[in-house]
Amino acid sequence: MSKSFFPEYPPNLSNDNLQSLQELAIDWSLSHGLVIRPPTNLALSNNSSVMHAPISLFPSPFPKKTFYQAIELQPVFNLLFHKLSRNHEFITQVIEEVTKVDDFIDELYKIYLKIKEEGIAQPISLGLHRSDYLLHVPQDASEANVLQVEFNTISSSFSSLSFLTGELHRYLLESTKYFNSSELLKIDSLPLNDAMTSLPKGIAKAHELYGSPNAVVMMVVIGEERNAFDQRWIEYNLLNNHKIHIIRKTLAEIDQQGKLDPETHALIIDDKEISVTYFRSGYAPELHPTKKEWDARLLIERSKSIKCPTVAYQLVGTKKVQQVLAMPGVLEKYVTNATDAKKLRASFAGLYPLDSSSEGEAAVKLALENPERFVMKPQREGGGNNIYTKDIPPKLLEISTSERSSYILMDLIQPPSMRNIILRQGELVKGEMISELGIYGVFIGNDDVIVNEIGGHLLRTKGRETNEGGVATGFAVIDSPLLV
Ligand code: ADP
Ligand code: MG
């Protein structure tokens, strides 16, 4: 199955032709902002140099029907996560057990409870999500479906680079036609992707709903995130297309400089009122090294600014919630339209608790006996945290039963592979690849739904043998789908 799923790809080209495509790809990337910052040892001073982003030379074939199925799921997921974020009973039941063994989740949960008690100053929340999927071909089936890897409710990245990679591929396909007439290489098969503009549009709409024309948007950026360009593109877009100013702050700066208006709970920083607080960071414990960062989180959460995400949104974006939703009957409690619930459930891979429940004990046994079928995940974001296959048994044996409940177990999805050529640090690498599709979602709501939209897509591609999928972590490249 895996070898024949996408035959005759990538198109056969002479070495000379490949080399000219390589040059075109590098120059197009450098001249159009499809770039990343180089590692420190290669960088010029003042962050003044870039290199082309890791990309695939050709778009990767992706089944058209399945692509649109994934797109259709997005508004349903957007609404589901909004509802969950407002369901106190659900959050308490699912998260409380994890807080006992996971300090990061515990700190978030404490803020959540405190705000719950004090009263929420801002009923509107903004979600800029990304739902990630791998292709799966069931045994004896000829068609693939998507299985969800995870749903991101905070700091969904790569919105601009994914758009730009699609544009690069449009250009490279036109160029390739000059020396190869493959039927597959149709520009029309590259779907439009509005990921570059959809996220800033969502922020702009939230800003408008906040209703103070003189307010500004605040982006929380820390550490590595300062080097990513997607947050800059959001900034350019907000200013150029929506005339909204944006300030960038770290959590430590917010702690030092931010205050709340005692009457209105408006968040004030640099004498400016903040309409929207957009977290392009803040998803991991290491981004909260001291009490200052947590104080800043609390200050923001208490404020009237529209948060993207709220702490509640962040909590329902955990892998634990994903696992609980997959349990029999749970998803169906929150997605009451049966057709929608069925569609979402069809995208769930096998997910299991690893706690002390009887299901948890059974999952431990299963994982010890057949580790090659699974991945074990802690409540973390940002890549590099999961434990794969043969590494699972030693980990399970090392940790206590209560520590186990901060992890979940998931079936390893084995997508069909295809051949493609990737371009990384100027060099081409050919090989068996697999792709992961991300669909962006934009949601604004309070008791009502105000905006519920699909926000474009991202395709990341990596070598067949690589477990992790992150681009920033160096495992994957940015790609775009060629719908077949
Ligand atoms: P993170 O929040 O750190 O990004 P993910 O759940 O997205 O964690 O996992 C990171 C990567 O590991 C994914 O991008 C994917 O490539 C791979 N991965 C995660 N879950 C699975 C799975 N069930 N089957 C196969 N690969 C997986
Ligand atoms: Mg991920």
Model description:
By secondary structure, this protein is α+β, with helices and mostly antiparallel strands. The protein has two domains: 3-349 and 413-483, no CATH class; 350-412, 2-Layer Sandwich (Dna Ligase, domain 1). The protein is 38% helix and 24% strand. The strands form five sheets. Strands 3, 5, 6, 17, 18, 19 and 20 form a seven-stranded antiparallel beta sheet that branches. β18 (427-445) and β19 form a beta hairpin. It is globular, with a radius of gyration of 22 Å. The protein starts with 14 loop residues before the first helix and ends with a strand. Magnesium ion is lined by residues 132, 150. Mg(2+) binds at residues 150, 152, 381. Its cofactor is Mg(2+). Its EC number is 6.3.2.3. ATP binds at residues 150, 319, 377-386, 388, 410-413, 436, 462, 468.
- The overall average pLDDT, rounded, is 94
Residue share in helix: 25-40%
Question: What integer value in Å does the Rg equal?
Answer: 22 Å
Structural class: alpha+beta
Summarize the structure.
By secondary structure, the protein is of the alpha+beta class. It is 38% helix and 24% strand. Strand 17 (418-424) and strand 18 (427-445) form a beta hairpin.
Indicate the topology:
Blueprint: H1 15-32, E1 35-36, E2 51-52, E3 55-56, E4 60-62, H2 64-85, H3 88-99, H4 103-118, E5 125-136, E6 145-152, H5 159-177, H6 195-210, E7 216-220, H7 230-242, E8 246-249, H8 251-257, E9 259-260, E10 267-269, E11 272-279, H9 291-302, E12 306-308, H10 311-316, H11 319-326, H12 330-334, H13 338-346, E13 351-353, H14 358-369, E14 374-378, E15 387-388, H15 392-398, H16 401-404, E16 407-411, E17 418-424, E18 427-445, E19 449-463, E20 477-479, E21 481-483
Bound molecules: adenosine-5'-diphosphate (ADP) and magnesium ion.
Cofactor: Mg(2+)
GO molecular function: ATP binding; glutathione binding; glutathione synthase activity; magnesium ion binding
Domain Glutathione synthase substrate-binding: 215-316
